Amino acid sequence: MPEFVIPAPSVATIPTSNGGNFPVRRVYCIGRNYAAHAVEMGHDPSREPPFFFQKNPDNLDPSGRFPFPKHSNDVHHEVEMLIALKSGGNEITVDDALDHVWGYAPSLDMTRRDLQSVAKKAGRPWEIGKAFERSAPVGVLQSASEVGHLSEGSIDLHVNGELRQAGNLNQMIWKTPEMIAYLSRYFELAAGDVIMSGTPSGVGPVQPGDKLEARIKGLQPLQVTVT
Hints:
By secondary structure, this protein is α+β, with helices and mostly antiparallel strands. It has one domain: Fumarylacetoacetate hydrolase, domain 2 (Alpha-Beta Complex), CATH 3.90.850. The protein is 15% helix and 31% strand. It is built from 5 helices and 18 strands. The chain has a 6-stranded mixed sheet with strand order 4-3-15-8-9-12. It has a 5-stranded mixed sheet with strand order 6-18-17-13-14, with no helix packed on it. A hairpin with a 5-residue loop joins strand 1 and strand 2. The longest helix has 11 residues. 39% of the residues are buried.
C-alpha cells in the first residue's frame, strides 16, 4: 500500500436504514426536471435533452443542520429525490437501469440563487451557486429491496409548517431509468454514484431559524434546521 504525502480525506457517506453507511463517489444533479419548475425559472418545459451539473460528495450532509452560507443574500430550497447506485458502467440501457439502483433518499439542493444568477448571465459554470459546503442535506437512504423503485408518489417541502413545494415523482420529465441511461453515455457510472433527480415548483428563500421538512411518499422524512 503506497503511503500518502498528506492525510487521506475521509469518504463521504449517507446513513442507511439498515444501520450501515453508503459511500459516495460522485454526485450528479439534473436541471429543470419538472415542467412547472422549468416555467417558474423562465424556461420552456419541453422535453429537450437533459443536462446535469455536479456537486461534491462532501457537500452531502446528513446532520439535519444547514449553515446559512456567507457571501449570499438569497439561498433557496429545492427538494429532490436522491438515487444511489450500487453498480454502473457505460451505455446502460433504460430497461437495465434500475438493476443498478441501491436505494433512495429525500434530499435538498440548497442553492445560492444570487450567485447562480450571476454565473448564468455570464455564461459561467454553476458550482459557486450549487457546490458549496453542506449544500446538499440528505436523509436516511433506504434500499430498493425495502421500499421498491419509486416512480410515483408525492414529493413536498414544508418550511416552518407551511407547504412550499408540492409535486409527484411521476411528473419528472426524465424518469430514473432514463437519467441513468443518459448519464452512462457520457460518464462511466460506478457503485457509489448518486443522482439528485430535480425539484418541483415552489422553490424559494430560507432564513436562519427556518425549519424544513422534506417528504417523499414511501421514505423517511428529512428534517433540517437553517442555522
